[in-house]
Amino acid sequence: MYLNNCHLIGALSGGVDCQSGYVEIRDGRISSVGEQLPEGAAEVYDCGGGTLLPGLIDLHTHITLLSNVGISCSGDPMQVLVDASAQAKRYLRHGFTTIRDCGSIGRAANYVKKLIAGGVFDGPDLITCGSTLMPSVQNSLSGLAAMNHFCDGVEEFRKGTREEIANGAEFIKIYASGSALLPTGVPLHPIMTFEEIKNLDEQYVMHSYSRFPVALDRGKGATLWDAEGREYIDFTSGIGVCSLGYANEAWANAIYQQAMKVGHISNLFYTEPYARLASRLVPAAGMAAAFFGNSGAEANEGIIKVARKYSYEKYGEGRATIITLKNSFHGRTITTLKATGQDHFHEYFFPFTEGFRYAPANDLEALRAQDRGDVCAVMVELVQGEGGVLPLDKGYVKAVEALCAEKDWLLLVDEVQTGVGRTGTLFAFQQYDVLPDVVSFAKGIAGGLPMSGIMANEKCKDVLGPGMHATTFGANPVCAAAGLVVQEILSDGFLKEVQEKGEYLRKGIEALNLPCFGKTRGLGLMIGVEVREGWANKDIAGKLIENGLLILTAGPGMRLLPPLVITKDEMDKGLDIMKKILG
Ligand SMILES: Cc1ncc(COP(=O)(O)O)c(C=O)c1O
After folding, report:
1. For residue 237, is it within any domain?
2. Is the pLDDT of residue 507 over 70?
3. Is pLDDT of 80 > 60?
4. Is the CB of residue 437 below 6 angstroms from any atom belonging to ligand 1?
5. Does ligand 1 have an atom closer than 6 angstroms to the CB of 385?
6. Are residues 307 and 235 both part of a single domain?
7. What CATH code is carried by the domain that includes residue 529?
8. How would residue 247 be classed by pLDDT, with cut points 50, 70 and 90?
9. Is residue 329 in contact with ligand 1, taking CB distance under 6 Å?
10. Cβ 441 under 6 angstroms from ligand 1
11. Cα 297 to ligand 1 centre (Å)
12. Taking 60 as the threshold, does the pLDDT of residue 100 lie above it?
């Protein structure tokens, strides 16, 4: 059963985050968000900020909505003016010409009563109120409430709406007030323009990286919208992080639910999400134990510590060197910069951590040549990501594993970028048919929250004893709850689709025959594209981004890391943009 039209009238909650425009919801998902008033849409009289639509997401409803008035209820009178004018500007930008400031929820209710009395509106079917309602405001609603369902809070509202649907309603009029419909609050549009956001950022943020001139605001699946409402297809996932795309409901709900129970507790106590996430990952990877941290670099520090401690305990001092590969990337801490096999990362920040030597990839003899009796481990990325999406040869990796076993060097695999489904298997080492002694992972593990981890095999799982390795935020149960949703979704069938999508995208790019692109390479949805001589990858990225396709560079080429949930339709849209702009 679908509602054809759900008209909304009312006062949304205070604050500065109200929405304008309309949203269509089909099959429980937002299917489009637009800025034009659709035919037959009713008006929303909004006396505050407001957060409404995600509260409706689980209803099978097609909603049209126009927000007409939005004035902040902030306590600071100056801020009220600032917020009000920002909101008014935003509404005007989205094509609204009338701004009616009701000023308070109570006055909005009275206004609705006037509309009813004047025959403009025949009264809402549902009234929903949030926790912010004062008794005096409830009084002003009482006349309306007498005629309708009165829902106090989001759950009751959903129940009431379902009842209406079950009773055959195709058209429900709602009076919404307070933070009634959504516990968390997700604005549909930002209140600041791109220029305003950029100016603040320029003034207050350390610019240790350069940014593209886009302020991203919201997303769904593999599609994002910027602060001005422009659409982008995303081939980046926030650099390989948002594997479930944007606004995944199961993920967002798990985060909300866990945050409402306990948001953080430290390594000193057990929590269920942490234990459950470890119990899912460890057997699936064929490892023996896990430790969770916050970032990829931190995870790599952890695996380096395991290698050095293992060797020190068994062989004593003087055997602490780790061989890494040229062109690798392992992070930006003082140690992981030095572990990174690219000279330009070894500048400025002296003194770096000692004990790293580098060997060219795919050359076993060169690796052997680095053996000076002081080696404790070899550390590799199976597909060098930042270096240019360069998969290592399978035979080479097998031979490295054998060499490590022969010398009792630990095989450390950095799966910060390749891990957690990115390459079409849970970990890339499963496609290389090797088992690392210790593996690091991060990026996609919690689908967008900061989390990383390491896993060790039976031989190494007890190397770090109590007090030897910890991190304040590392045991965060909200991140772990998000990670559990990611694990739930990464079924074998899903991972097979990741491989198929990777093939589809690579073939699609090659079939475009673009003058600037050469061959493609990669594993699963980790794709590299060669950029031909005479073309600069950064310029190509800039042009594509300007025209609605987010893409990354790596080494001298392009890098694609789309959300793993990307659809064929979204991939086709991205390919069309490439063809139009680069063809
Ligand atoms: C293979 C690899 N290792 C380590 C890192 C560092 O991870 P983080 O930026 O989370 O510290 C990265 C980041 O891109 C990476 O790709």
Report:
1. yes
2. yes
3. no
4. no
5. yes
6. no
7. 3.90.1150.10
8. confident
9. yes
10. no
11. 6
12. no
pLDDT on residue 233: 98
Average pLDDT, the chain: 80
Q: What angle do CA 494, 499, 502 make, to 5 degrees?
A: 120
| Together in a domain, 506 and 479 | no
pTM: 0.74
331 Cα: distance to centroid of ligand 1 (angstroms): 5
Last residue of a domain, one of 458, 486, 514: 486
Q: Is the CB of 328 under 6 A from ligand 1?
A: no
Number of structural domains the chain divides into:
3
In a shared domain, residues 233 and 120: no
Range of the domain at 440: 262-486
SS3 30: strand
Of 512, 508, 521, 553, the C-alpha closest to 535 is: 553
State whether 385 and 436 are in the same domain.
yes
pLDDT tens sequence across 431-451 = 999 999 999 999 999 999 999
Same domain, 567 and 457: no
Contact 91, 71 (CB under 8 A): no
Tokens 């937002």, residue located: 30
Of residues 276 and 118, which shows the higher confidence score? 276
Token pair, residue 218, equals: 């919201």
Tell whether 89 and 132 lie within a shared domain: yes
Q: Do 161 and 207 share a domain, yes or no? A: no
Q: How many residues does the chain have?
A: 583
CA-to-CA dists, residue 371 to 341, 353, 364, 379, angstroms: 17, 19, 11, 14
Mutate to test the pocket of ligand 1, among 242, 303, 329 (most ligand atoms within 8 A of CB): 329
Amino acid identity of residue 296, one-letter, is: G
Q: Which amino acid is at 103?
A: G
Query: So what's the pLDDT on residue 126?
Result: 65
The total of other beta-carbon atoms located within 10 Å of residue 477's CB is 22
User: Which atom of ligand 1 is the closest one to the Cα of 442?
Assistant: 10
For ligand 1, atom 10, name the residue with the nearest CA. 296
Whether ligand 1 lies within 6 angstroms of the CB of 386 is answered as yes
Tell me the pLDDT tens digit for each residue of 218-230. 888 999 988 777 8
In a domain, 38, yes or no: yes
Least confident of 34-43, 456-465, 547-556: 34-43
Rounded Cα–Cα distance for residues 173 and 550 (Å): 39
Specify whether 528 is located in the same domain as 387. no
CA of 450, closest atom in ligand 1 = 10
**Per-residue pLDDT at 5 exceeds 90:** no
What mean pLDDT do residues 373-380 have?
A: 98
CB of 381 closer than 6 A to ligand 1?
yes
pLDDT for the residue numbered 187: 36
> Which residues, in sequence order, are CB contacts of 553 under 8 Å at separation 6+?
537, 538, 541, 559
Tens of pLDDT, residues 406-427: 999 999 999 999 999 999 999 9
Question: Which residue would you say has higher pLDDT here, 20 or 558?
Answer: 558
In what order do the strands lie in the sheet containing 149-152? 5-10, 171-177, 126-129, 149-152
- Degrees to nearest 5, angle at CA 333 with 331 and 339: 55
